[in-house]
Design brief:
about 100 residues, mainly alpha, about 0% strand, elongated
Length: about 100
């Protein structure tokens, strides 16, 4: 991978980049900010980004904004919804009595 010229120009500030190792994905969960997003979601993000670039809307109010979460946060949200639905069903049963 080629390092952009700006990094070479400011290497006296950044230091030696040869020892930097990139691991994991650059695409993280919007909710927790820790977990990597799935490859499928990353591909969707790239497609939308390319569409926005072609439309000339990147960095503007018209840019597409997508809220993607990792599988872990998605499961937590599903469990929370299930518990809420269960409480609501119990509440309806009690009010019928």
């Amino acid at each position: 991978m080629r390092i952009p010229g700006e990094f070479e120009e400011f290497s006296y500030i950044l230091g030696d980049l040869d020892s930097v190792e990139v691991t994991g994905s650059l695409y993280k969960c919007f909710k927790c900010g820790k977990e990597d997003l799935s490859d499928e979601i990353v591909e969707q993000i790239k497609e939308v980004t390319l569409d926005d670039v072609a439309a000339g809307v990147c960095g503007t109010e018209d840019e597409t904004r997508i809220y993607f979460v990792c599988d872990k946060c998605k499961r937590k949200e599903e469990m929370r919804k299930m518990r809420r639905a269960r409480r609501m069903r119990r509440g309806r049963r009690r009010s019928r009595r």
